[in-house]
UniProtKB/TrEMBL annotation:
It comes from the Bacteria. One of its GO terms (molecular function) is methyltransferase activity. Keywords: Methyltransferase, Transferase. InterPro entries: SAM-dependent_MTases_sf (IPR029063). It comes from Paradevosia tibetensis. The keyword Transferase applies. This is Class I SAM-dependent methyltransferase. GO terms for biological process: methylation. Signal peptide: none annotated.
Length: 196
């Protein structure tokens, strides 16, 4: 996250956001199935830590991160371990992870920065590693009723950002209807890719 108004929302609402009882993301099972036993996984945007908790329980070596220090503290309560506070553009590891999970997090990255962030994600992955990310569908960047920034992509535009960032393998985008924190119906774009 790099938007001050979005970070302010999560700072002021961290306890409520983290404690809302969200289950792990539906796509997490398929992500876990694509990884080797004991895989090293980076989670970008852990939020309340529910997905990281499920990955830890599955025996993975998980590095949870979040751009909000307040959310990171809340997630630490659930995880019983530190959560690294970092912005997406601070990802500096190389060939470090068997998988990277970014459910409902990169959707806060300003459009102009997304290609560069995806290049950093690709660089941090080991060859053959799996990457999964979700974005809210739409046509133009904007804010929700809470003032949070979203990059809102349609499938073809999002695909171009991925293709411009790196040479991916098995790059796929699928769409499903769901909802977000605000409870409103939302088109979600799920991206799955592997590093060559």
């Amino acid at each position: 996250m790099q938007d001050d108004e979005t970070l302010k929302f999560y700072a002021e609402n961290a306890r409520a956001y983290a404690g809302r009882g969200r289950r792990p993301a539906k796509r997490l099972g398929a992500f876990l199935a694509a990884l080797p036993p004991g895989a090293r996984v980076l989670e970008l945007g852990t939020g309340g830590g529910q997905d990281a908790r499920a990955m830890l329980d599955a025996g993975l070596e998980v590095t949870p991160t979040d751009g909000s220090a307040e959310l990171a503290r809340e997630a630490e309560k659930l995880l019983g371990r530190p959560v690294r506070v970092m912005r997406f553009d601070e990802l500096d590891e190389v060939d470090a992870y068997d998988g990277i999970w970014a459910a409902a997090s990169l959707l806060h990255a300003p459009r102009r920065t997304l290609t560069g962030i995806l290049t950093l994600v690709h660089r941090a992955m080991r060859p053959g590693a799996t990457f999964v990310a979700s974005f809210k569908g739409g046509q133009a960047e904007g804010r929700d009723g809470f003032g949070r920034y979203y990059n809102y992509f349609d499938g073809p535009t999002l695909l171009r950002h991925f293709e411009d960032a790196a040479d991916w393998e098995n790059l796929e985008i699928s769409q499903e209807l769901g909802s977000g924190y605000d409870g409103k119906a939302t088109d979600w774009l799920w991206v799955t890719a592997r590093r060559r």
